[in-house]
Amino acid sequence: MIAITDYTPPLSLLIQRYKYYNTPQLAPVLARLFLLHWLQGYREGRWHKPDRILGIPLHSRKRWQRGFDHIELITRSLSRWLQCPYQPDFLRRSRATLTQRSLSAAQRRTNLKQAFQLQGDFTDQHVAIFDDVITTGTTLHEASQLIIRAGARSVQAWAICRTL
Q1: Among 29, 33, 103, 127, which is 20 to 30 Å from 158 by CA?
Q2: Cross-strand pairs, 118
Q3: Residue 80, SS3?
Q4: Dist. CA 60–CA 43, nearest whole Å
Q5: What is the C-alpha separation between 164 and 162, in angstroms, rounded?
Q6: Residue 42 has pLDDT above 70, yes or no
């Protein structure tokens, strides 16, 4: 798992503003913060560059309500800066799920069962999956299991913040 910091101010407040107050212009700021952290670890040999980057997608209804997909905006920038392929339709949320924030770890697992679909060939690839916050790891675990079953060699979990 690669995360900049724990879910504490000021980044936690910045993420909340970005997601819930219709400020998509914060995407490059958050992407750049992650990129700088990632580059430092890469130069130190703590992790390797992935072959492909995926973002945890919103369901189409949630995207419509919010007006943008907050993860897609960040992931697009990271993909461009790291020169890694990014196809937003390779990982899809196949059904609407409850908001994870208020759910226990067990409820999160149930909520996300079979919530994602994967397209594309991941055979022998190193894949990074990006989400804004890793709380219990359930979302990234569900998505990474699909990618591993699709033949990926490795999966890295990337996030701005973590609560683990």
Answers
A1: 103
A2: 91
A3: helix
A4: 37
A5: 6
A6: yes
Residues 85 and 51 sit within 8 Å (Cβ to Cβ): yes
pLDDT value of position 14 = 96
Which residues face 159 on adjacent strands?
Answer: 3, 131
Let me know: does 1 contact 136? Beta carbons within 8 Å: no
Three-class DSSP category at 156: strand
What phi and psi, each to the nearest 5 degrees, are found at residue 162? Answer: -140, 155
pLDDT in tens, 65-103: 889 999 999 999 999 999 999 988 899 887 666 565 665
Label residue 60 left, alpha or beta by phi (over 0 means left) and psi (-120 to 50 means alpha).
Answer: alpha
Which long-range contacts link 103-112 to residues 24+ away (Cβ below 8 Å)?
105/136, 105/138, 108/135, 108/136, 108/138, 108/139, 109/138, 112/138, 112/139, 112/142
Name the amino acid, one letter, at 135: T
Pairing type for strands 91-93 and 116-118 reads antiparallel
Q: What share of the chain is helix, strand, coil (3-state, %, to 5)?
A: 45, 20, 35
pTM greater than 0.90 = no
Residue 7's alpha-carbon distances to 95, 103, 133, in angstroms, are: 27, 17, 7
